[in-house]
Amino acid sequence: MNAVGVDVGGTKIAAGVISPEGKLLNEVRYPTANARERLLSTIAEAITEVKRGYKVGGVCLAVPGFILARENKVLSAANLEAIEGIPLKEELGDRTGLQVTVENDANAAAWGEFRFGVGKDVDDLVFVTLGTGVGGGVISHGVLLRGARGMGGELGHITVQPAGPRCGCGNRGCLEALASGTAIARHAREVAEERPDSALGRLAMERTPLGEDVLDLARKGDEAALEVLREAGSWLGIGLATFVNIFDPEVIAIGGGVSEAGDLVLEPARRELRLRSHSPSRDLVEIRKATLGVNSGMLGAAALARGEYEKYVLGG
Ligand SMILES: [Zn+2]
Questions:
Q1: 25 with 77: CB under 8 angstroms?
Q2: Per-residue pLDDT tens digits for 107-123
Q3: How confident is the model at residue 156 (pLDDT cuts 50, 70, 90)?
Q4: 143 C-alpha to ligand 1 centroid (Å)
Q5: How many CB atoms lie within 10 A of CB 97?
Q6: Which strands sit side by side in the sheet containing 286-289, from one edge to the other?
Q7: What is the pLDDT of residue 67?
């Protein structure tokens, strides 16, 4: 049976009808509204429009925030506060006539990569997405780990540097505060100030360098930009070593915009991983680039909507 996956982002809502094999059959996109009622009606409209003409069995929303899985509510979402506390199953179930569930966006993306993407040939996958923030999801023995309430798998908020920079979550030194695109841009400004003669330093005199600028300059060989990416990669590797020691995955999939940097970030990550995790897991684990791109959350959510909760989700 087809299902609808909805990626509810801070700026846009993307809804897709997905076949059981992971094929995207139809898709609509709407801008995200930031008031409760408008947001609900936009999501309901997106679902209704995308499923027109298709037989679908359910819908799952992938949301960037902490979710309470059993209640199908979002507890907190820093970039989407309007969705907090809404009983989504009831509110949207009535409007769409479908069974509605909710999942953390990175957990949904992890499930998408596991079912249809880079992890479809393995049973044990750790997924880390490096974007504006750092999200994650863990699949162990084919089961999505969600914890007691559905808040598990927040890999971006493990502490890797206790006195490190402040994270969006309020703590200090989270992996997100050191290896996200936002962290790279912040560090780039600091390095640019220390090294005004570098290409990065010269750019910073004209405008604030973005994550993409750092990648562009690093590819051209600018040592200051390379240093920024190396440092982010090292912090990432410290995080990955912890994940390897806890979960012993076959594959770690890296997604998100920062993964475009490839080995400029992943080589220092692999180095830290080898230093801080144990043999044979550290030698056997493969670090791969995620393959589904921005659709991973939508595809994973649809797969979860199809009733895979009962069988393949642990906790929540
Ligand atoms: Zn944090």
A1: no
A2: 999 999 999 999 999 99
A3: very high
A4: 25
A5: 11
A6: 286-289, 251-255, 125-130, 134-140, 143-147, 313-315
A7: 93
CA of 11 to the centre of ligand 1 (A): 21
Q: For residue 154, what are its two tokens?
A: 């927040």
Q: How far is 86 from 284, CA to CA, in rounded Å?
A: 43
Q: What is the pLDDT at residue 94?
A: 92
The pair of structure tokens assigned to 215 is 């990648």
How many CB atoms lie under 10 A from the CB of residue 62? 29
CA of 91 to the centre of ligand 1 (A): 30
Measured in Å, residue 160 CA sits from the centre of ligand 1 at: 10
pLDDT at 96: 95
Residue 12: CB atoms within 10 Å:
12
Q: How far apart are CA 65 and CA 295, in angstroms?
A: 18
How much of the chain exceeds pLDDT 70, in percent? 97
- pLDDT at residue 308 tops 70: no
